[in-house]
Write a structure and sequence with these properties.
Layout: H1 10-21, H2 28-58, H3 66-82
Length: about 80
């Protein structure tokens, strides 16, 4: 496993230490790894959402009204909620 050294202000160091002392994390390294994992997951979700936005923009201007789109969405949602 690789090692990374970082510098943080005292207030951040104290906060991280309190998180470890709370028992939620085994060590400072465990806490930092958890933060990185959460950031990776968030970045992947944002990337997927951006891809959907790009796809929508590339598809051009639609011909249906917002009311028609909402009606269609409601119809598609009904079977799922009834199950």
């Amino acid at each position: 496993m690789a090692t990374i050294n970082i510098s943080v202000p005292d207030l951040m160091r104290d906060y991280v230490q309190r998180r470890v002392e709370s028992g939620l994390y085994a060590s400072v390294s465990d806490y930092v790894r958890d933060l990185i994992r959460k950031d990776q997951e968030s970045s992947e979700k944002i990337g997927a959402m951006q891809a959907l936005i790009d796809e929508g923009l590339a598809s051009g201007i639609g011909k249906r009204s917002m009311a028609e789109l909402l009606d269609e969405a409601r119809l598609q949602a009904k079977p799922r909620s009834a199950a």
